[in-house]
Design brief:
Elements lengths: L2 H27 L11 H9 L35 E6 L4 H17 L4 E6 L8 H13 L3 H10 L5 H11 L3 H9 L1 H16 L7 E4 L2 E4 L4 H10 L12
Parallel strand pairs: 1-2
Antiparallel strand pairs: 1-3, 3-4
Length: 243
């Protein structure tokens, strides 16, 4: 073999040795990629539990979805005139009816007297004094004092017959006419008519109310009711059709 051949072999060996050294150096600086970790349900719950929960407002279009803020209509600087009808089915012994009145309907009456609020009697059988209270409300209406007794019954904690008589006296109702009215079958029929209307609309509990025909259940704050009135354009009551 010639000298040139041995020099060629030696050069090749030196080149291979240099490549191996460079490869080892790269392997020492590059860390291997970790294998994917399987995420369990408990791990996911722990991660979600670390996130702050944002309360969702009740829905305008469908229960369970939030009413998102609308900067064009939610400006507090200038009150917006609203139109429409709120029809509410309530039970005077229902705590959430009392809350809806205090936080939703009463402020709505003050802010927007142009909005019509219709009150329907829907006493539940689980409340022992609700039916009698409803009759007192109906009979007070016949004396032109529904607004006063409605407010009084929604804030009273005791609706026994004794206390109902006291409330009626404070309001200034004619006791003889009132008691006669409460015992009449026609009064019972008026309450039952409200109950029948509610059931025909799918009412099963209280408070349930309709904003221009759209059904809501629960104690909503006035801001949500205002927003729904702004977004609901049709002032028809449930069961009615445009003529």
């Amino acid at each position: 073999m010639s000298r040139r051949f041995f020099i060629g072999i030696l050069s090749g060996l030196l080149f291979l040795s240099a490549c191996n050294l460079q490869s080892d150096s790269l392997r020492s600086t590059i860390k291997p990629t970790a294998s994917p970790k399987e995420v369990s349900d408990s791990d996911l719950q722990m991660e979600l539990g670390a996130l702050p929960l944002i309360p969702l407002s009740p829905s305008v279009s469908a229960p369970g979805k939030p009413i998102l803020p609308n900067p064009k209509t939610d400006s507090p600087q200038e009150p917006i005139k609203l139109s429409g009808t709120v029809e509410v089915f309530q039970d005077y012994e229902c705590p959430y009816c009392k809350r809806l009145a205090a936080e939703g309907l009463d402020p709505l009456r003050k802010r927007h007297p142009e909005v019509s609020i219709l009150v329907r009697q829907f006493p539940l059988s689980i409340h022992p004094h609700a039916l009698l209270a409803a009759k007192y409300a109906v009979c007070a209406a016949s004396q032109g004092e529904f607004a006063k007794i409605d407010a009084a019954l929604l804030t009273a904690s005791d609706l026994t017959e004794t206390n109902l008589k006291k409330i009626a006296k404070i309001i200034g109702l004619d006791e003889k006419k009132l008691l006669s009215c409460v015992s009449e079958k026609s009064t019972q029929a008026l309450v039952e008519a409200d109950i029948s209307r509610g059931r025909s609309l799918g009412v099963v509990g209280t408070p349930t109310f309709f904003i221009n025909g759209e059904k809501y259940e629960g104690a909503y704050p006035v801001e949500n009711i205002e927003r729904a009135l702004r977004e609901q354009k049709d002032p028809l009551l449930p069961g009615e059709t445009a003529g």
